[in-house]
C-alpha cells in the first residue's frame, strides 16, 4: 500500500518561501512511469495542479505558477519537495501530494498552509 504524507510549516509570512515535503512509503519515487504531483485547493475553490516530478527526475509546472515553483526530490529519502517563492495570501490553501500514472491513484491527506503576517 502506497502512502504519501505532506509535511511543512502551516503558517508562512507574505513574500517568504513555502516549502513542503512529501514522504512516500510503500513504493519508490523512481518506479517507472510514475509522476509525483503537487496539487492545492484554496478555500472555496477547486483543485489546482501545481507541478510534478517524474520517476526520472524531470519536472513540469503549471504555467501560471512556473516562475515561483520548484519541485525536487531526494531518492535516498524517497521524498519530493515543493518550494513556492514570494507567497501572498492568495497562496493560502490545502496542499496535497499525489501519485499519478494516467490517473491520480494515491493522495496524501493534505496540509493546510496559511499565508499571513
Short description:
The protein has 117 residues and is mostly beta strands. 0% of the residues lie in helices and 52% in strands.
What does the model show?
With 117 residues, the chain is mainly β. 0% of the residues lie in helices and 52% in strands. The protein contains no helices and 11 strands. It has strands at residues 3-7, 11-12, 18-25, 35-41, 48-54, 59-61, 69-74, 79-84, 93-100, 104-107, 111-115. Strands 2, 4, 5, 6, 9, 10 and 11 form a 7-stranded mixed β-sheet that branches. A 4-stranded antiparallel β-sheet has the order 1-3-8-7, with no helix packed on it. Strand 7 (69-74) and strand 8 form a beta hairpin. The radius of gyration is 13 Å and the shape is globular. The termini are far apart. The mean pLDDT is 97.
Amino acid at each position: 500500500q502506497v502512502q504519501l504524507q505532506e509535511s511543512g510549516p502551516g503558517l508562512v509570512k507574505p513574500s517568504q518561501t513555502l516549502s513542503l515535503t512529501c514522504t512516500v512509503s510503500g513504493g519508490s519515487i523512481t518506479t517507472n512511469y510514475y509522476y509525483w504531483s503537487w496539487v492545492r485547493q484554496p478555500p472555496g475553490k477547486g483543485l489546482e495542479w501545481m507541478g510534478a516530478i517524474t520517476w526520472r527526475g524531470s519536472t513540469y509546472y503549471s504555467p501560471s505558477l512556473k516562475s515561483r515553483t520548484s519541485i525536487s526530490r531526494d531518492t535516498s529519502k524517497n521524498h519530493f519537495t515543493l518550494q513556492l517563492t514570494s507567497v501572498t495570501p492568495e497562496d493560502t490553501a490545502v496542499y496535497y501530494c499525489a501519485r499519478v500514472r494516467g490517473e491520480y491513484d494515491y493522495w496524501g491527506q493534505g496540509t493546510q498552509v496559511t499565508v499571513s503576517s
